[in-house]
Every structure is written in structure tokens, then in C-alpha cells.
Amino acid sequence: MLTQQEKQQITNQTNALQKEIKELRTRLNQLNDQKEEIFQQRNKIGKEISEKIRKIKELRQKRNQITEEVKKQKEERTKLTEDIREKIEEYKKTTKGKAKPKENPIKLKKQIEKLEYKIETEGLSFDKEQKIMKQIHELEKKYKEITKENEDWEKTYSLSKEINKLKKEADKLHEQIQQKAQTSQEKHEKLIQDGKEVDELKVKEKELNKKIEEKKKEISEINKELQEKLKSLAELQEKLGKHKKAKKEKTKQQKKKKLTDRQKEVQEKVKKGEKLTTEDLLVLQTMPEEEKEEESENKETELEEETTENSEKEQDEETEDWNQSSKFKSTNLLTFCA
């Protein structure tokens, strides 16, 4: 069992450990809260990265699609350019070495087509329509005269129209290519910008991961220290528990001894036939049953012996009295007789 000084020392150590354990647990809770906050920041950035990567993939897919379309349109434009070059060569061959018409047949043809279109689409009066028909007839007459002088003119005119048509198609295609190329470039620049943002977010994510690992390490160290202190506290509490148990046992033994002593005192009083107090009776009730029966039997025996002794004594006294009485009577009788 511990001395009072040892007990006080262990109690002081226990109180100090409990205070340190409380502080460590508070620190652990703070660190866990900090770690959780960093976790949330890291997860938020992770979601931003995932979302940006998803958009980058979509953007890259659209850019690649546009790039593929531009590639095909460039191939079409190249083919158109080649067709135009071939048509121009053919046109040159057709007009080579031939006199230039007095009047431009193309211009005449266009005038005729324009007037014909006007008659078909506009609601003209009969006189005005006749007047336009007369103009068309005169223009056709001039056109026939000119084309008659140059038999290949129809072919030349057809080639000219085809060349102009192809040039318009090539210009339109070129414009589409330029627009799509511009769109593709914009998406490409957006891809680069988004890629940079993803890289920046990954740097932040890495920094947060590093902080999380630092917090985990710090938590692990404090938790280790906490477990050691809890172990020390348990050992001290075990010592105090053993001391308390030993003290309790000692007190129990002291009470038992005291009770045993009192029981012996009561037993002596019973043996002596002395009067028992209420406290003696209570002590007597605490005695084992066998001892009680033995004491009871002893008491009964003593009472019987005492009763027998008293009875014999009384009988002796009565005999003595009778003898004395008889002796007195005999004396009186002798006196009377004399």
C-alpha cells in the first residue's frame, strides 16, 4: 500500500497528465478542423480542375473538327483553283490569234438576259413590252452577227461563265476557310489559356496536398504523445486503484478484527451470564450460526447447572430447617416428660 506522500505524488501526476491530455485533445481537434478545411479547399480545386479538363476535351474536339473541315475545304479550294487554271488555259487557247469583236458579245448577252428577265417578272403594259421585245430582237441580231464572225465565241462565252462561277465558289470557300480558321484559332488560344489555368490549379492542389500531409504528420505525432500519456495515466490510475483496494481491504480487516474482538467480549459476557446490552445483541447477530448455537447451548447448560445448583441448595436449606425444627421439638418433648 502507498504512503500518504506517494499517494499525493501520484494524484498530482494524475492531475497534471489529465490537464496535458485535455490540451492535446484540444490541439488534435483544432488540427482536425484545419485539415478538414484544407481538404474542402483541395476538393473544390479538384472539382474545378476536373470541370476545366472536361471543357478542354470538348473544346479540343470541336477545334479538331473545325480543323478537319478546314482541311477538306482547302482541298476543295485547291481543286477549284486547279479547275479555274485549266479553264483559263482553255479560254486562252480558244481566243488566241482571233480578232476581237467590235462589240462585247458578253455584254450583249447579259443585256438580252436582263431584258428577258424583266418581261418575265414585271407586269408591263402591252406597248412597253413590245418596245422591250424590239430591243431584245435588235440585240440578238447584233449578237448573231458578232458570233457569226467568230464561230468559237459560244465556247469562249461558256468558258468565261464557268470561270466566273468557279471563281465565286473559290472565293466563297476561301471566306468560309478564313472564318473557320479564325474560329479554330480562337478555340486553340482558349485551350492554351485553360491549360495554363489547369496547371496553376494543379500547383495549388499540390501545395494543399503538402499541407494536408503536414497536418497528418503533426496529428500522428500528437496522437502518439497522447497515447503515451493515456498509458501513463492508466498506470497511475491502476496504482491508485490498487492502493484504494488495499486500503479498503485493510479497513475491512480492521473492522472485522474489531468485530471479532467485540464478539469475544460478548461471548465472555454470555459465558459469565452477564446481562447483554442492545449493542451486544446486535454483535451477537453478526456471529456465525454455529457459534450462536454453541453459545446458546452453553448458555442453556449454564442456566440448567445454575438451576440445579440453586435447587439443591434450596433442598439442603429445607433439610437443614427441618432438622433444626425436629431437634427443637424433641428437646421440648423431653423437657415436658421430665
Q: Rg to the nearest angstrom?
A: 68 Å
The main β sheet shows up as: none
Please state the oligomeric state of the protein chains shown.
Answer: single chain
Strand content: under 5%
Mean pLDDT: 81
Give the distance, in angstroms, between the N- and C-terminal Cα atoms.
Answer: 98 Å
Number of strands: 0
Give the helices and strands as they follow along the chain: HHHHHH
Structural class: mainly alpha
State the low-pLDDT regions, or none: 289-295, 297-303, 318-338
Q: Shape, please?
A: rod-shaped
Instruction: Please tally the helical runs, counting DSSP H or I stretches of 4 or more residues.
Output: 6
Helix content: over 70%
Structure description:
- This protein has 338 residues and is mainly α.
- It is built from six helices and no strands.
- The chain is rod-shaped.
- The two termini are 98 Å apart.
- The C terminus is likely disordered.
